[in-house]
Write a structure and sequence with these properties.
The chain is mostly helical. Helix content is about 55%, strand content about 10%. It has two domains: about 50 residues, no CATH class; about 80 residues. The protein has three helices and four strands. The structure holds zinc ion. The site of zinc ion (ZN) has 7 residues, from loops.
């Protein structure tokens, strides 16, 4: 009985009371877990220090994190596209040259170069947003 249990009412660690004989009734009893506050414990519904719900909780946190992550990513992509639009407005030839250079470097066509550029800018804004 070296594992630890928590009270189902107050979540304090339970004390293991070894088997003995009741002073009141004179009857033998099995060992049991007892709350320091004397909350009745339902066998076998003791809280475990690592209840299965902890996993569900972690998963819900991870799902939340993923949702936030996707929102940030989406936001970064919007910013990247806006930045490209702005570059195109300010210096269309410069942007074109940059994209052609990027296409050459990555050995791909202009459209893929645009996508790569959006990805690169997204990463850039992503880092800004997430502070990495
Ligand atoms: Zn208790």
């Amino acid at each position: 009985m070296d594992d630890q249990k928590l009270c189902i009412s107050c979540s304090q660690f339970l004390n293991w009371v070894p088997a003995g004989v009741s002073k009141k009734t004179g009857k033998p009893y099995n060992g049991f877990w007892a709350c320091p506050e004397k909350h009745p414990q339902k066998k076998p519904a003791y809280q475990n220090p690592n209840p299965p719900s902890a996993k569900a909780f972690t998963q819900s946190l991870e799902a939340d994190f993923d949702r936030q992550r996707n929102i940030i990513r989406q936001h970064s992509q919007d910013m990247a596209i806006k930045a490209l639009e702005l570059m195109h407005k300010v210096d269309p030839e410069g942007l074109m040259q940059e994209l052609e250079q990027a296409a050459l470097t990555a050995q791909t066509n202009i459209l893929n170069a645009v996508i790569l550029q959006v990805k690169k800018l997204s990463d850039h804004f992503d880092k800004d947003v997430s502070g990495k």
